[in-house]
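Predict structure. Chain length: 21.
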Amino acid sequence: MRHYEIVFLVHPDQSEQVPAM
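Prediction complete.
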């Protein structure tokens, strides 16, 4: 999994944590 996928799964409500997809 890529970093943004992990962040999205861990913080689904915090999309701001996801780098430019």
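Summary: The chain has one helix and no strands.
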